[in-house]
Design goal:
115 residues; Transcription Regulator spoIIAA; 4 helices; alpha/beta; single chain
Length: 115
């Protein structure tokens, strides 16, 4: 496994928000780690930005976690935005599935945090 494809996820608290930063391949093996990060106590804030800009690959397992969290956030009133700038594989999958029209998306987390 190359360092480029190595998966990682961590939460970066911001004022009244958290940015969940993901890097590497978001697939069946790593989707559970993303789910855990999104459900962690530090991600239970009014606004969450999921930063997928460093994701090199995403499959249906990863997409399923994103969709499930979007639904959970909608039902609880949490603001949930996905940042995809610079991740063509992610942008393409969101475009192909039509989720780009459903889930709020920005190019950079700072744009979402400024709104």
């Amino acid at each position: 496994m190359s360092l480029e494809s190595a998966f990682g996820v961590h939460c970066e608290p911001r004022a009244g928000a958290v940015v969940v930063v993901v890097r590497g391949e978001l697939d069946l093996d790593s989707a559970g780690s993303l789910r855990d990060a999104l459900q962690s106590p530090e991600a239970q804030v009014p606004s969450v930005v999921l930063d997928l800009r460093a994701v090199t690959f995403i499959d249906s397992s990863g997409l399923s976690v994103v969709v499930a969290h979007h639904q959970r956030a909608s039902s609880t009133g949490q603001r949930f935005v996905v940042a995809v700038g610079g991740a063509p594989a992610v942008q393409r999958l969101f475009d192909l599935t039509g989720l780009g029209d459903v889930i709020p998306m920005v190019q950079d987390p700072d744009v979402a945090l400024a709104q």
